[in-house]
Amino acid sequence: MKFGGSSVADAARVREVAQIVLSFPEEMPVLVLSAMGKTTNNLLAAGEMAMRAEEGVEALEPLRAIRRLHEDTMEALGTDAVTKAEVQKLLKKLEQVCTGIALMQEVTSRTRALLVSFGERMSTRIFASYLRSLGARTEQVDTIDDMFVTTDEFENGMILDATFSKTKARLTLGPGDEPVVRVVTGFLGRGEKTGAVCTLGRGGSDLTATVIGKALGLKEVQVWKDVDGVLSADPREVEGTVPMPFLSFQEATELAYFGAQVLHPHSMRPAMDSSDLCVRVKNSYNIRAPGTVIGHVRDEDEHKNWLLTSIVQKKNVTMLDITSTRMLGQYGFLAKVFSVMASNGISVDVVATSEVSVSLTLDPSKLWSRDLAKEELEKLVQDFENEGIAHVTVSSGHSIISLIGNVERNNEIMERSFRALGSEDIKVKMVSQGASKTNISLLVDQEQGSDAVRAIHSEFFSK
């Protein structure tokens, strides 16, 4: 069971999550926790502010906020004296790290990874202590203690194979051992060569949970969030969204890529590589909701009725129309187009081709800082002109509307979607079907993007 920062944001939420854990009396789950609330953001802010500190780092507001949150939480929960001493020791060590930053006037990638590790190391100790006060047998576990082995990319460590055997050995109960709830730090590992603390990148705590699930040969990992599973659309823009009972890993990956708040594809890999392990997304505010199962194969009966899973909008999209009558019928046109893209370090979202043209979309917000986006796009266009490949037209202010569903029934999905869009006078500028066979992407003007999502959602989910 994995709980994110909002689930353990303060003493009240810790109590609620503890009740969720204790509602499984026949199980002894392994818990993976993130840092409390906004602690990770405050830790990073403390590192940046420490470089400019003219007085003692103890006065830095992010450090004061971290200390206040954890001390207030321990006081409210009645944390035992031993755990209080451990957390105070970590807080002191944190201040020492920030003092080192202030003296050196720099914060490296390795130091940032060490900084953010304090959040999970404190939250798991406090939570384990509270569970013990309720009568549960618990053990706090640090994944940095010879358990999670990663590459030496300090802020984006990749899990190495040794992790699985070490995790199994560390968490498997021996003969005669008493059942115990393990409370494990998410997001953290140690570099294979340097031995330094490394973080696991985006979705790192979810990844921790799926790695443990695979290592222990479990059937299910539960990821607890603040919604009733994966929804049919963004509830901030669409009324009447519904949770999906099932998603394939492929669908979940497509949804995440195009911006939906699902598990990061990186974190699902251990489950995807396991024949039996699935991931269930549950709501910590509504524990009775069944949530969404993310797994390998749909039930046959469900597959027959499956049409559309979810609709997601990706905003701030730029489109390039690349046209070349000179390349008509010649091989190598696409190779030259993508060679120019590669030389500029640009990945493409969606592609549609014809005999003499290519239309493709970019997301400049992922590639360049805002003030360089225009300059970099102009350079890209100039490179195409210099290569003598094609004429390029750039247009911005678009949205990609991705329809994740059963592409075996794509004729029906397309017919109903275009009918819904036509009724709202929404024009589609580009259509592409993903190679994954689970995604159809439509490009529209961004000012019509939300209306497009609502129109399609109403067509499929309101009838």
TrEMBL record:
InterPro entries: AceGlu_kinase-like_sf, ACT-like_dom_sf, ACT_Aspartokinase, ACT_dom, Asp/Glu/Uridylate_kinase, Asp_kin_monofn, Asp_kinase, AsparK_Bifunc_asparK/hSer_DH. Belongs to the aspartokinase family. Signal peptide: none annotated. One of its GO terms (molecular function) is aspartate kinase activity. Its EC number is 2.7.2.4. Residues 322-397 form the ACT domain. This is Aspartokinase. Pathway: Amino-acid biosynthesis; L-threonine biosynthesis; L-threonine from L-aspartate: step 1/5; Amino-acid biosynthesis; L-lysine biosynthesis via DAP pathway; (S)-tetrahydrodipicolinate from L-aspartate: step 1/4; Amino-acid biosynthesis; L-methionine biosynthesis via de novo pathway; L-homoserine from L-aspartate: step 1/3. It comes from Ostreococcus lucimarinus (strain CCE9901). Gene3D superfamilies: 3.30.70.260, Acetylglutamate kinase-like, Aspartokinase, catalytic domain. It comes from the Eukaryota. GO terms for cellular component: chloroplast stroma; cytosol. GO terms for biological process: homoserine biosynthetic process; lysine biosynthetic process via diaminopimelate; threonine biosynthetic process. NCBIfam families: asp_kinases. It catalyses: L-aspartate + ATP = 4-phospho-L-aspartate + ADP. Keywords: Amino-acid biosynthesis, ATP-binding, Kinase, Nucleotide-binding, Transferase.
